[in-house]
Amino acid sequence: MPPAEPTPLGSFETRAVHAGQRPDPTTGAVVPPIYQTSTFAQQGIGRLRGGYEYARAANPSRSALEEQVAALEGGARCLAFASGMAAVDALLRTTVRPGDRVVVGADSYGGSLRLLDSIYSDWGVATELVDLRDLATVRAAVGRPRTRLLLGETPSNPLLNIADIAALADIAHQAGVLLAIDNTLASPFLQRPLHWGADIVVHSTTKYLGGHSDSVGGAVVVDDEELAERLAFTQFAAGAVSAPMDSWLTTRAIKTLGVRMRRHSDSATELATWLAGHPAVQTVYYPGLRDHPGHDLALRQMDGTGGMVSVLMAGADHADAVRAARRLVESTRLFTLAESLGGVESLIGYPHMMSHGYQRGTPLEVDARLVRLSVGLEDPGDLRDDLHQALGS
Ligand SMILES: *Cc1c(COP(=O)(O)O)cnc(C)c1O
After folding, report:
1. Of 62, 93, 148, 207, catalytic
2. pLDDT of residue 10
3. Where are the alpha helices (DSSP H) in 119-243?
4. How confident is the model over 99-122, as a mean pLDDT?
5. E strand spans, the chain
6. pLDDT at 359
7. Is residue 291 annotated as a catalytic residue, yes or no?
8. 207 classed as catalytic
9. pLDDT band with cut points at 50, 70 and 90 for residue 3
10. Is there a contact between 102 and 125 (Cβ–Cβ < 8 Å)?
11. In this structure, which long-range contacts are made by residues 384-388, counting pairs with CB atoms below 8 Å and at least 24 apart in sequence?
12. β-bridge mates for residue 128, sequence order
């Protein structure tokens, strides 16, 4: 690895712009180039320039992203991967062995549950699902023998449940278990889990960090050097690294993370408040609303409540509400019906059959009346008008 250079001092948004972004030493280019190269010329056998040898081990475009994300999460090291799932996979490969157990929030990202359930189970790793808000249950689960990892997500998807990171860290550490938090929905601008005691942060940078729906990527951030070395070895040995172009796009996007997240939060708050008073809507799930069960915790643990809003549709009966949900997601014009979240453009999704379709017919099935909104950066009045016309009133 190249030698770590000092991170520029400053507050979050200053670090977002400057961390890992030194002008190119050859030309002075203010934006470091995309190092679209697989290998690096050596000055003699093993005499590397800046520590770079082969791009699976390290590439300057990836190093820049890793330095930037580590600086924003407040961790010593970040490792950037080809996708969020590659990041979760590297985390699991590094922390668990056959016979070990992982305790996971039951409302975690479906892909993480699927990875544990359909791949890691075959390698002898057991998974126990828990409600992260029920701390007594979490304590009992992490206390069982050979539990190595507690993996949680807050806010969760699609119900935006809030888990108390500091309390989970206490429980995990008392049992000698590592706490990993998937910080994808919040982004480091709104929430920094390492600060609250988590050992590991994972991201799908595909979402808010990338922010423009134009790249797929993942990241793992830790503050412990020994754990960082083990993760770096997994990354190097298994090879699911972030490519130079994806790293560069993500780095560019992160420079505007602060302004984007503020606007996502403001617009989502405005729409959630409006939807809560709409007759076609039964329940709005948004941590920024006072009646959300995680509201107080969100205010304590986060610097804003984010851009995701979920809506349970009303109806004369269940079937009628299901029809209303399907009609809504197929009737918006600005909100695009698509998977994913966190981009500048607003998206609308139907978790029951899309993001969480894998859980249909299981106890984790998402309510068929639920619609999920990823509120983008368009004019919030235009977004409200779009929902208004799509709700048909
Ligand atoms: C999308 C997502 C992932 C998976 O990331 P990919 O980049 O799609 O592989 C993991 N966790 C959360 C919370 C996500 O939203």
Report:
1. 207
2. 86
3. 135-142, 165-174, 187-190, 225-238
4. 96
5. 77-81, 101-105, 126-130, 147-153, 178-182, 200-204, 218-222, 281-285, 308-313, 336-337, 347-349, 370-374
6. 87
7. no
8. yes
9. very low
10. yes
11. 384/270, 384/271, 384/274, 386/332, 386/333, 386/334, 386/335, 387/271, 387/274, 387/275, 387/328, 387/332, 387/335
12. 103
Question: What is the pairing mode between strands 218-222 and 200-204?
Answer: antiparallel
Is 216 close to ligand 1, i.e. is its CB under 6 Å away? yes
Q: Is residue 242 lining ligand 1, measured as CB closer than 6 Å?
A: no
User: Residue written as tokens 């910080």?
Assistant: 183
What's the rounded Cα separation, in Å, for the pair 13 and 72? 9
| Ligand 1: residue whose CA is nearest its atom 5 | 84
Q: What is the pTM of this model?
A: 0.96
Tell how far the Cα of 218 is from the centroid of ligand 1, in angstroms: 8
182 given a catalytic annotation: yes
Ligand 1 centroid–CA 208 distance in Å is 11
Confidence of residue 2 (pLDDT cuts 50, 70, 90): very low
Mutate to test the pocket of ligand 1, among 108, 132, 184 (most ligand atoms within 8 A of CB): 184
Active site residue 320: no
| Beta strands 178-182; 147-153: pairing state | parallel
Concatenated DSSP letters of 156-168: -TTT-----HHHH
Task: Return the structure tokens found at 114.
Answer: 């699927």
What is the number of the ligand 1 atom nearest to the C-alpha of 88?
10
Buried b (16+ CB within 10 A) or exposed e, 202-219: bbbbbbbbbbbbebbbbb
CA of 204 to the centre of ligand 1 (A): 4
Find the 383 Cα to ligand 1 centroid distance in Å: 25
- Nearest ligand 1 atom to the CA of 184 is 13
Question: By the 8 A CB rule, do 282 and 294 touch?
Answer: no
Give the pLDDT confidence of 144-202 residue by residue, as tens digits.
999 999 999 999 999 999 999 999 999 999 999 999 999 999 999 999 999 999 999 99
